[in-house]
Each structure stands twice: as C-alpha cells, then as structure tokens.
Amino acid sequence: MLTAEQLIREIYLLPFPEREKLAHHIVNFGIKTSPPVIPERLDLKQWQQEIAKEPFNLREASDYLGVSSATLKKLVKEGRISSRKAGREYRFDVPELKKFKKSHKY
User: Fold this and answer.
1) Residue 77 CB: number of other CB atoms within 10 A?
2) Are 22 and 54 within 8 A, CB to CB?
3) What is the pLDDT of residues 91-102, one digit of tens each?
4) How many domains does the chain have?
5) Residue 1 three-state SS
6) Are residues 42 and 69 in the same domain?
7) pTM for this structure?
8) Which of 25, 33, 48, 52 has the lowest tally of Cβ within 10 angstroms?
9) Are residues 32 and 17 in the same domain?
10) Dihedral of CA 100/104/105/106: which sign?
11) What separation in angstroms does the CA of 67 have from each of 51, 64, 77?
C-alpha cells in the first residue's frame, strides 16, 4: 500500500499534463462525488491508464517528451512518431509517446 508521501512523490514524477488530468479526476470524481466502491489501495498505474485514454495535443506531447513543438513536428514529418490531425490540431496517443520516450533519450 502506498503511503501519502510515496503517492505525492509518484505524482510529482508524472509529466505535467498527466498531473493536470489526475488533479481534474480527483476533484471531479474523488471530491464532488463519492465512488460506488472506495478502493482500499490506490492503483496509480490504473489512474495513469485512465488519463492516457485521452490523446495529447502538440503542447502536451512536446512537454511530455521534453522537446520543442518544432522538434516534435519534425519527428512526425520523419515518420518517427505517428499522430492524427483534426484540422490544424495534432493528436498523439499517450501509449505510443511512452514507448517512444522509453526507446529514445532527448
């Protein structure tokens, strides 16, 4: 079981966009409403998976990878990272970004 100190440390290790989504999730589902079943243990990996369901935009993806938006666009153009475009907006699947980040050091 995670202690509060361990949980806070784990949260600070998350990329900023994931921390924002986690905070939103806590406020909307953990404070405003009570869940039907309160888990005895916090499953941080499960929360990360919930957060990762929504694709990142260009800013979120570049923040997560620690590269500039221009560098990320270049990686997309080179075919090293896939993305979808909705109008002018780029959308990146979080699991794919995680794989790329693990296999490349920037």
Assistant:
1) 9
2) no
3) 999 888 988 988
4) 2
5) coil
6) no
7) 0.55
8) 33
9) yes
10) negative
11) 21, 8, 15
